[in-house]
Design a protein that fits this description.
The strands form 16 sheets. A 7-stranded antiparallel sheet has the order 1-2-13-4-9-10-11, with no helix packed on it. Strands 14-15-26-17-22-23-24 form a 7-stranded antiparallel sheet, with no helix packed on it. Strands 27-28-39-30-35-36-37 form a 7-stranded antiparallel sheet, with no helix packed on it. It has 17 helices and 91 strands. The N terminus is likely disordered. The termini are far apart. By secondary structure, the protein is mainly β.
Length: 1517
């Protein structure tokens, strides 16, 4: 008779569980009853109950996998059991699992419910936090205990006394939409929980009574116990994760204790409890403590640190053992726990004989304690430096580690992928290939691991076999300590929070946190055939490789047993393992294998980007795979900017934009690119999600507004400037429809469609649908625009498509039969040619007397001709670029010298070239000692160029603010020419004396490669051929062609459109204003106010807004006011303010000489006066790139008046106030060609008065100096002036006087006799540039009086620049903090006075300064005094408190190299001079022991500069 089959045999043939046919009203079953789906998930959250088809057997796990979730609701999956047969539910089950009140146990969230009432709180992991792909199960043990499982990990006994007949139930509630039953084996395949509910709540005494039964447990039964994890009860600062197997201390930089964690069950005899240190901080002292305790975590009141417990505890702390908080062994083992680092492991074992052993990195430290009771719980104290630890499963978890060396395991010759992999991945080809079979429909869950750990110095390398361009992101590679058999494969490997190092993009992540941002070559740019690898050195250092090139060290202290891991993410669809080379041993001479360290990339002819003249370039990745030039890919780093509309969310490294609340919001979802589009760059997106609730859809276009300056509106078509958009089939510019019926209708797009745009070289904007050109949408579109997309209406989500560009411009499948060759540039780029350095060169088209040689670097004029010597640069001069030429030969036959400047004229073949610079229509240049514009002189007295000699270097430099500066041998000539148009060329006139020059400068980094600038003809020709025959141009071809054309024309046309536009006024204006001439002229028709006008467009940083005065009305006082405001004109009140000074919000207005900010005067010392403007003169404002507001008068920069910033859009404000009756705008081009007016009459009167006063002071001035002798002392004083850095233009060339002993004796008895007090001084007349009013200036009835003012050499230049003496706070008299505090009153204003003396002797009390002369290599020591004219009645008189007739003590001076100086005189003596006690006696102006003092800076005019040298000190130094 046959035996009855056992239960195990019956169980082994048991059919797998399915879902019952009775289920919730919204549930639909599929896959033969193995899958359940809740219908209408966006509208309903319940009615999703499903049951098991049969009752559960003991030790049988019923497990489901979460396949889909939505985020519209709160709550998620619920699982449990019920004793009620599902077939008895009529007419349908209840809507929610908690509504079953007939014997049901349900786990919802982290709480357990019985019959709808909570019985256990915080049972385990929160089910609401599970993700798609996570698994959850339930099992009844043979003892009647109920155990829940999350991702195959048992969560412990939840409840006991469960009836025999039960059915599993699953509630597809809230976020959970779809689940599938997973296949599981019976009984022995599942771990069995050790403890029942009753045993968990037993106190330690009850546990000790069962010690004998527990200690007799055999090894096989021990193997079936619960997997070790941390107990949910822990220290107050601890956070558990990874299925309670990782513990982390919160706020590690603020807290150092309260981090105790314990195991969830007692340790078995001879069971290894081991943890790994995952994270440390360096702020605290002390570190991890590990040990055991007899205290049950259920009943323990957790202390701040475990060593505070006084019973039942043995801990290893540092290098000692503490029992019950007291040290029992001071020196234990060979390791100190405080010195361990991240990745180190600590373990312990209580052996069956009661001995306790600790292990550090698997090395036994010996017996720490004996007769340890049983049971004990493992305990870890996350103290001090230790932040996070994780439990480790060892293959020999039951067997204790020993110090004996283990036998070598069999060597696996070939490295393969493990068959256990991610949900969407599969391993084929015998384990050598991993791929995502459905790469077009899924992008993650593609993790594959190696089948064995990597050996030290073993390279794990894979080659990309297949790439799909649908997704963003690509392959990720790294190592992990997680075993493939135990890993719960995540959606992406960077989600693993322990033991993992991954390279993703161009960064490195450790345990999900970025540790290196810019590590190496971006993996997202790799294509098919590229290789990527990883190696762990024997010293624990991790290196990554891309195409065989080492990217450098990525991490240290990496454990030895790590598995190679590849994440087939995004574009990466398939990889294969490259057969590894044998590991090379490390030697002293060759520290690393040579095949892993190829030659540096810069020695292997790196590729040069074809867009190198742009600010940023394409990256051309090199590949060692055998690919032709046509398959070389050009990638872009374009992404969305972090600033966007309020209803927008960015993800996938800012490559995906979505509108999360697409069903409730339809606008406010504008996204803009992170940078401007490059020439020929395609902006393309793929539509990933549409909703049918709204009308309208995606809007796409470009804008010139920077993201930082954009006030994101509800929809992009609301912007009224600098924007070109396609909305539906309508083309819009600045919010106005310019064209209807465009072939592309964005409202008709579907999910999966790709739509893009491209600006062509002719300025037209084209749109593309799935690579098909839809034609030009608009024209005249400038460069440097940001792409912008509006997720409007139906469009809910898009992603950027990083389309690679073929280097040949023709797809590989179309190259056959097309033999049109590439140009030399493209061939060079594709072949990886060496980049050229871009040296400045001269154009071959020049004057008829010029010969160009040395490959365009030398120009020589024929000696028989003194003109026809114009030479032009080959390329335009760029911002922050200097063009330097060296004088090579000079001919003494002719008079005159070099002319240098800039011009918009650039000759071509057959162009007639003028004979001199004056024949150019648009040129700015220096010739002789004057500055000219288009042949007309507008500035004089610069350093004359007639004194140039062979070897001198003349430089012309263009600033970022489009201004010109000149220098000779590196010395600035103090000449500034503003408003130079872009695209202008350097022009040289080899006139008269100068016969030949050579170019010595080099262009900016990133300027045009030499191969693209051979000749103007080559630069003007497109080198990429159009497609021939009937082959249509693809989007990639067009992009490359436009990129090459943009390269060749960028210099000349980049800013041409912007500089040719005429500026206009805004329609919003004052009540008394009428516009004429198409908004370019404004006229005030009545009264003297109500004349506000605004610029139509905001002022872009680097640009200006200027107006010309057309008519004045002399009946009124006051005149033009101008400035800027942050209030857009269309948001102004309907009735503007009567005057610009009434603008209260952010505004800066200049009126006369004063600056007003927000209606309040903040400055009144401007160097110009708007009230003096006359008919025909122009005035304007200029906003620099750094946010400084400059004022322009007749096109010349008067300097910065205020810093206004660039964060807000600023509009120009003009107030036709008082005399100003009519103005007109000035075009940007004409603004740069305006000339200055002659010197004003007040300045002439001042100059005349200075000369007359100079001639009348016989005691100080003499006539002409002796011309037959050169005075050595005067030459030394002249050298001192040169070291001070004063330009020659500030001092008169004639009229200087020397008062040395020799000259003083020679002048005896002559009319030029120098006064006695001038003995030892040299004097130069100053060309004063400050204007004074006629009624107060010299030349009126009251004669200004001569005085002297001591100062420092370092401030003379500033005094002459500003035309005023400096306040005492900035001058020599008060340089210490104590002196400055004493010179200020209670209100913080300066009480310091400007000090003068009617005689020269008191002024010599100024401290002596020391300047280093680099030419003669010695120190010059001297004093500086300014002779000034003081307005009568503006000063008061005081006696000096120190004797003035005696020699003043010389104050110590600090030596500063290069001509700058810092004096440090006695502060007490200075204070005596500044604040003398008032005397009651009468004082006369002739008294030599007096000072004049005043607060009025404008009451003195500098007349002359006096220098006195101490030759004795100079010689001794």
């Amino acid at each position: 008779m046959a035996e009855e089959p056992s239960s195990s045999t019956t169980s082994s043939v048991q059919l797998p569980q399915q879902f019952h046919a009775i289920h919730g009203t919204l549930v639909q079953l599929s896959e033969n009853g193995f899958s359940a789906f809740r219908l209408r998930p966006s509208h309903e959250f319940n009615q999703g109950l499903v049951f098991s088809s049969r009752s559960l057997k003991d030790e049988q796990v019923f497990e489901v996998r979460i396949d889909r979730k939505v985020h519209s609701w709160t709550g998620s999956i619920q699982i449990g059991i019920t004793t009620q047969d599902p077939a008895t539910f009529h007419p349908a089950p209840p809507p929610n699992a908690l509504d079953i009140v007939n014997k049901s146990w349900v786990l919802s969230g982290c709480n357990l419910f019985e019959n709808g009432k909570i019985i256990v709180e915080d049972y385990g992991p929160n089910l609401d936090e599970l993700s798609e792909g996570d698994r959850v199960g339930i099992m009844r043990t043979s003892e009647g205990d109920l155990v829940f499982y999350v991702n195959s990990f048992a969560q412990g006994v939840a409840v006991s006394g469960i009836p025999q007949t039960i059915y599993a139930l699953v509630d597809l509630y809230g976020k959970c939409v779809e689940v599938t039953v997973t296949n599981h084996r019976e009984t022995q395949s599942q771990p069995r929980p050790l403890l029942t509910l009753s045993s968990v709540v037993m106190d330690s005494n009850q546990v000790n009574q069962e010690e004998e039964s527990c200690s007799t447990a055999s090894t096989p039964s021990g193997a079936l116990q619960d997997r070790l994890r941390f107990h949910h009860r822990c220290g107050t600062m601890v956070k558990l994760s990874a299925g309670q197997r990782t513990g982390e201390r919160r706020r590690p930089l603020d807290e150092f204790n309260n981090g105790v964690v314990m195991t969830q069950r007692p340790l078995l005899p001879d069971e290894l409890f081991e943890i790994r240190i995952d994270s440390l901080v360096d702020k605290w002292s002390g570190s991890i403590e590990v040990g055991i305790t007899t205290h049950n975590p259920v009943a323990l009141d957790f202390p701040s640190t475990m060593t505070n417990l006084r019973s039942g505890t043995i801990m290893m702390s540092g290098c000692g053992i503490l029992t019950n908080g007291k040290g029992t062994r001071r020196e234990y083992g060979q390791c100190n726990l405080d010195e361990l680092g991240e990745g180190d492991r600590i373990g312990l074992i209580r052996k069956a004989n009661g001995d306790l052993h600790f292990y550090v990195n698997s090395r036994d430290q010996g017996v720490a304690a004996s007769n340890v009771p049983n049971p004990v719980w493992g305990v870890v104290d996350l103290y001090g430096r230790t932040v996070r630890v994780s439990l480790i499963d060892r293959e020999d978890a039951i067997k204790a580690p020993t110090n004996e060396p283990e036998e070598d395991s069999p060597v696996v010759e070939q490295l393969l992928f493990h068959t256990r992999c991610g949900l969407h991945a599969a391993v084929v080809n015998g384990g050598t290939t991993g791929h995502r079979p459905n790469a077009q429909s899924d992008f993650n869950h593609g993790v594959v691991l190696t089948s064995r750990p990597l050996k030290p110095d073993e390279l794990f390398e894979v080659v990309l076999d297949k790439v799909v361009l649908k997704w963003a992101g690509s392959i990720e590679i790294g190592v992990t300590t997680q075993r493939p058999e135990d890993l719960d494969f995540p959606a992406t490997m960077t989600n693993v929070r322990s033991g993992t190092w991954m390279m993703t993009g161009n960064g490195v992540m450790h345990n999900g946190l970025t540790v290196l941002d810019d590590y190496g070559t971006s993996l997202d740019r790799l294509g098919s055939g590229d290789r990527v690898g990883v190696i762990r050195r024997s010293n624990g250092v991790l290196h990554f490789f891309v195409n065989g090139e080492d990217q450098g060290p990525a991490a240290g202290n990496v454990p030895d047993k790590v598995y190679g891991v590849v994440d087939l993410y995004g574009q990466a669809a398939q990889v294969s393992i490259v057969t590894p080379s044998p590991a090379t041993p490390l030697t002293d001479s060759s520290p690393y294998p040579s095949y892993l360290y190829p030659a540096p990339s810069h020695l292997l002819a790196p590729l040069v980007s074809p867009t190198s003249l742009a600010d940023s370039t394409y990256a051309l990745p090199t590949s060692s795979s055998s690919t032709s030039a046509s398959s070389t890919l050009i990638h872009t780093d374009l992404s969305f900017h972090k600033l966007h509309g309020r209803n927008t969310t960015l993800s996938s490294n800012c490559l995906t934009a979505s509108r999360p609340n697409a069903l409730s919001e339809f606008n406010d979802a504008i996204c803009i690119t992170s940078r401007p589009l490059r020439p020929g760059e395609v902006f393309e997106v793929i539509i990933e999600k549409l909703v049918e609730r709204w009308s309208g859809s995606l809007e796409l276009g470009v804008t010139s507004i920077r993201p930082e300056n954009l006030d994101f509106p509800s929809t992009m078509t609301d912007i009224t400037y600098g924007t070109w958009m396609l909305s539906g089939s309508s083309v819009m510019q600045d919010g106005t429809i310019t064209r209807n019926g465009y072939p592309l209708d964005l409202d008709a797009l579907h999910e999966g469609n790709r739509v893009g745009l491209l600006r062509h070289a002719d300025g037209s904007l084209h749109y593309y649908l799935n690579d098909q050109d839809q034609g030009a949408a608009c024209w005249g579109v400038p460069q440097d625009l940001y792409a912008v997309i509006d997720l409007y209406g139906q469009c809910a989500q898009v992603s950027l498509v990083h389309r690679p560009l073929q280097a040949s411009g023709i797809p590989p499948d179309q190259q056959e039969g097309d033999a049109t060759p590439l140009d030399s540039t493209t061939s060079e780029l594709a072949s990886g040619g060496q980049p050229h350095r871009h040296c400045h060169r001269l154009s071959p088209h020049c004057g008829r007397a010029i010969t160009i040689s040395d490959d365009g670097r030398t120009a020589k004029r024929e000696d028989k001709d003194f003109e026809n010597g114009l030479v032009f640069s080959l390329l335009p001069l760029q911002p922050e670029e200097s063009f330097d030429v060296r004088i090579e030969t000079i001919s003494q036959r002719w008079a005159g010298s070099l002319g240098i400047g800039i011009t918009t004229f650039h000759p071509q073949e057959g162009t007639v070239i003028p004979s001199t610079l004056s024949g150019l229509d648009s040129a700015w240049y220096i010739s002789g000692s004057n500055v000219f514009q288009s042949g007309r002189q507008f500035l004089a007295s610069c350093l004359p160029l007639e004194h140039l000699v062979v070897g001198d270097v003349v430089s012309i430099r263009r600033t970022v603010e489009s201004a010109l500066r000149f220098a000779i041998n590196g010395r600035d000539l103090s000449v500034l020419i503003p408003n130079i148009p872009h695209g202008a060329y350097v022009v040289l006139d080899l006139h008269a004396m100068v016969q030949s020059v050579s170019v010595k400068s080099i262009g900016k980094v990133g300027s045009l490669p030499e191969s693209l600038a051979t000749t103007p003809a080559a630069a003007a020709t497109s080198s990429v051929p159009a497609a021939t025959g009937t082959l249509p141009l693809s989007l990639s071809q067009l992009a490359l062609r436009e990129a090459m054309q943009g390269i060749q024309s960028a210099f000349s046309s980049r800013f041409g459109i912007a500089f040719s536009q005429q500026q206009r006024f805004h329609d919003h204006h004052g009540r008394n204003i009428v516009f004429k001439n198409n908004g370019q002229t404004a006229q005030r028709t009545a009264s003297y106010n109500q004349g506000l006008v605004y610029s139509k467009e905001p002022i872009v940083p680097g640009s200006c807004f200027q107006v010309k005065i057309e008519q004045l009305d002399e009946r009124w006082t006051g005149s033009l006011m101008l400035g800027v405001t942050a209030i857009p004109p269309d948001k102004m009140p309907s009735t503007p303010p009567t005057c610009a000074l009434l603008l209260k919000r952010p505004s800066w207005i200049i009126s006369g000489r004063a600056l007003h900010q927000g209606g309040r005067k903040v400055r009144s010392d401007l160097k110009f006066d708007l009230n003096e403007l006359r008919v025909g003169q122009s005035a304007g404002v200029h906003l620099s790139q750094t946010g400084h507001l400059h004022v322009l008068i007749d096109g010349f920069d008067c300097g910065s008046v205020a810093w206004v910033g660039t964060s807000e859009s600023l509009f120009a404000v003009i107030d036709l106030y008082g005399k100003t009756a009519e103005i007109s705008t000035v075009s940007l081009r004409s603004a740069s060609t305006t000339t200055s007016t002659p010197t004003t009459q007040p300045a002439l009167n001042e100059e005349k008065a200075l000369r007359e006063s100079s001639n009348s002071e016989k005691s100080l001035t003499g006539g002409k100096t002796n011309s037959h002798r050169s005075c050595r002392y005067k030459l030394a004083c002249s050298r001192f002036v040169n070291i001070m850095g004063l330009p020659d233009a500030y001092l008169e060339s004639e009229g200087s006087v020397c008062g040395c002993a020799q000259c003083f004796c020679e002048q005896e008895g002559t009319l030029n006799k120098v006064g006695e007090e001038m003995k030892g001084w040299c004097r130069w007349i100053v060309r004063n540039r400050r204007s004074v009013d006629k009624k107060d200036g010299p030349g009126s009835n009251e004669k200004w009086q001569t005085a002297f003012h001591g100062t420092r050499p370092s401030v003379v230049r500033r005094i002459l620049d500003e035309g005023h003496l400096l306040s005492p706070d900035l001058n020599v008299w008060q340089r210490t903090k104590a002196a400055r505090r004493s010179s200020k009153g209670n209100d913080g204003e300066s009480n310091g006075q400007l000090l003068f003396s009617p005689s020269l002797q008191p002024a010599t009390l100024a401290p002596t300064a020391e300047l280093y002369d680099p030419l003669h290599k010695k120190i010059q020591r001297g004093q500086v005094v300014l002779q000034v004219l003081v307005q009568p009645g503006s000063y008061k008189v005081r006696k000096a408190t120190s004797p003035l007739n005696a020699l003043a003590p010389l104050a110590p001076a600090a030596i500063t190299m290069g001509g700058s100086v810092t004096c440090s005189s006695d502060p007490a003596h200075q204070q005596q001079l500044l604040n003398p006690h008032a005397e009651s006696t009468a004082i006369t102006d002739e008294d030599p022991a007096i000072f004049w003092y005043t607060k009025e800076r404008g009451a003195a005019i500098v007349q002359a500069l006096l220098i006195k040298l101490d030759e004795t000190a100079s010689a001794s130094s």
